[in-house]
Amino acid sequence: MAVGDFPFPTMHPVAGIKLAAVGAGIKYANRKDLVLIELAEGARSAGVFTRNAFCAAPVTLCREHLASASPRYLLINSGNANACTGDRGRDDAIATCRAVADARGLAPEQVLPFSTGVIGEPLPADKIIAAVPAALAGLTENGWYDAGRAIMTTDTRPKGFSRQIDMDGHSITVTGIAKGAGMINPNMGTMLAYIATDAAIAQPVLDALVREAANASFNRITIDGDTSTNDACLLMATGRSTAPEITAADGALYQAVRELVLEAHTWLAQSIVADGEGATKFVTVDVDGGATPQESLDVAYAIAHSPLIKTALFASDPNWGRIVAAIGYAGVKDLEARKVRVQLNDVLIVEDGGRAASYTEAQGQAVMDQARIEIRVHLGRGAAREHLWTTDLSHEYVSINADYRS
Q: Where are the alpha helices (DSSP H) in 330-374?
């Protein structure tokens, strides 16, 4: 089940990027479950990763490899997370990196491994290694769609973004894919995202840009409050555009590329929410009037993580009392209830410490019957504003996760 219109777009190739998707039989037969992405020499990469203390072996290796070498290949498997697998998991991840590196005369550190799937199961490294030659042979600049499908687990549809802009006669492309439908929660902390541009971006600028973009997008989504062991977001810049290199975070060229990168991250993050496991509602939680950004976020999280609110959303029940209860327990110090206002879309439901005089149950029901809902909260304490994107909690979510390993 999926919500909203997030079609997979026509994907513009990114000069300096090739992809292949092949079947390795990692969990299921007769499906593509292994992706190889090739980066041209000279490309730069920057990433952000899960903050889960039980981060998977590939996450640990990615951090180490990014710090020591310029990546030339990404190797991504679905069907197995290679998380909580001890020394064997690390050895298996290294072995798969070495298989790609040896075939291309590179150091293993120039290959970044990524995994997604069931936690705690040994990685079938032999199956991945056996599939590497086919992946190398299948590399093409038009492989984005197949790659987007191959990284899916409980996703119901692939997630992609692609746009081109013109800056002073120079074409710049940003194209990317992502996966995720459950175990989704901020702090990149199961989601993976791979976004590429042909712009030339200096490494310090790229490092800062991926952190900013992830914080504004993937760190503002939550489906079930669970932070995966494998989350990763990689931003790649091949430098193959004819536009000048971006060496500092200023100027018209930087701002144009920054906006496009932020748009890509936001679209892919919202695509993940819209495809949340069992989701029937796409929900924006917008909290303004906070004294600090953190207290606005605390309120937004309290609303987005409340099982009572999420189940009411699924039932299309305008039970607004659950919303004010969550605001009240969010931990905002000395919150004055009489200053708080709550709206469902444009319908005012709470003000002056109680139900708004203008509110009717019919108004609330009309909003809750929609597939896209905005819960707006004004705290009346300051100018800080934050938002999250989330979903409802349905019977199907329980069924999907109860049957996940079967």
A: 361-368
